[in-house]
Amino acid sequence: MAGRPKASEARDTRTEILDAALELFADKGFYGVSIRDVARAAGVGVSALYHHFASKDELFAAVVLEIRPEGRPSLGPGEPPPFAGDAAELPVYLERLLLHAMDRFAVLRERKRFRIFLSDGPRLALEGRINLWERMLVARQPIIDLMARLMAQGLLRQADAELTALTFIAPLMMWRQLQSVSPDHVWIARPRDFARHCVTHFLNGAGARPE
Questions:
Q1: Residue 95 and residue 196 in contact, taking contact as beta carbons nearer than 8 Å
Q2: Cα radius of gyration rounded to whole Å, the chain
Q3: CA–centroid distance for 8 within its chain
Q4: Residue 126 sits in the same domain as residue 191
Q5: What number of CA atoms fall less than 13 Å from residue 177's CA on the CB side?
Q6: Do residues 129 and 200 share a domain?
Q7: Which of 7, 52, 116, 141 could make an S-S bridge to 73, C-beta 3.0–4.6 Å?
Q8: Are 75 and 141 in contact (CB under 8 A)?
Q9: Which residue range forms the structural domain that includes residue 43?
Q10: CB neighbours (10 Å) of residue 101?
C-alpha cells in the first residue's frame, strides 16, 4: 500500500485557488466571476475555497496584492538583503531595489495582476468592498521601514518615512502603466537606465545634505 504523499508532493490548495482566480479575474473582471467559477477552475469544492478565503472580496485582495497568510510583508523572492553600506554605496543599492521590482513586474503573472488592480481595485475600494489603502500599506511596509532606517543612519534627510517611500516607488507605478500600454517604450527596454535616473532624482531631493 502506498504511503501518504510527502509534504512537497501534497496539493497546495490555496495556491491553486489563487492561480485560478488570477486567470478568471484577468479574463472576466471581478464582477464577471463567481466563487463557484473559481472553485471549479481550481478543481476544489466551494467549501474548500471558503476555508482559505472568507469572501470573493478577500480572494480578490489576495490575488492583486499578494496578501500572505502569515501577514509578513516582503519585496518578493530574491529581494536584496538589508542595506549595510555607506552613502557612496546607497545609490547602487536603491537601483538594485528598483531593478528587482521591475524584474518581478515584467513577468506575465504580475502584468495580469496589475491589469486587474487597475480595472477593478479602485472601484471596489470606493464601494467599501475592500480596504485598498490598508492593503497597499502592508505591501509598502518594507520600503517604509527601509526609509526610516536610512534616516536614522543619517543617509536621508529627516522626513515622513511613508511619504518618502511613496516618493521612491511612485516612478515604479508609472513604469508599470507604461509597460501595459507601451511595452516598446525606451524606458521599458532600458530598465537599468530608468532605475539609475530615478534614484539620482530621488537622492537629489531626499538625500542627506552635507554639514
A1: yes
A2: 20
A3: 26
A4: yes
A5: 7
A6: yes
A7: 141
A8: no
A9: 13-65
A10: 21
Residue at 105 is within a domain:
yes
pTM: 0.74
Neighbour-count burial of 84, counting CB atoms closer than 10 A to its CB (0-12 exposed, 13-18 middle, 19+ buried) = exposed
Task: Based on the fold, state whether residues 127 and 23 are members of the same structural domain.
Answer: no
* pLDDT tens, the chain, 211 aa long: 444 444 443 458 999 999 999 999 999 999 999 999 999 999 999 999 999 999 999 999 888 876 554 444 445 555 667 888 899 999 999 999 999 889 888 888 888 888 888 888 888 888 888 777 776 666 688 889 899 999 999 999 999 999 999 999 999 989 988 888 888 899 999 999 999 999 999 999 999 876 6
Report the candidate in 65, 80, 157, 67 with the shortest Cα–Cα distance to residue 110: 65
Label each residue of the chain as H, E or C: CCCCCCCCCCCCHHHHHHHHHHHHHHHHCHHHCCHHHHHHHHCCCHHHHHHHCCCHHHHHHHHHHCCCCCCCCCCCCCCCCCCCCCCCCHHHHHHHHHHHHHHHHHCHHHHHHHHHHHHHHHHHHHCCCCCHHHHHHHHHHHHHHHHHHHHHCCCECCCCHHHHHHHHHHHHHHHHHHHHHCCCCHHHHCHHHHHHHHHHHHHHHHECCCC
Spatial neighbors of 61 by CB under 8 A, at least 6 apart, are: 67, 130, 132, 135
Query: Could you give the angle at which helices 108-126 and 56-65 cross, rounded to 10 degrees?
Result: 130
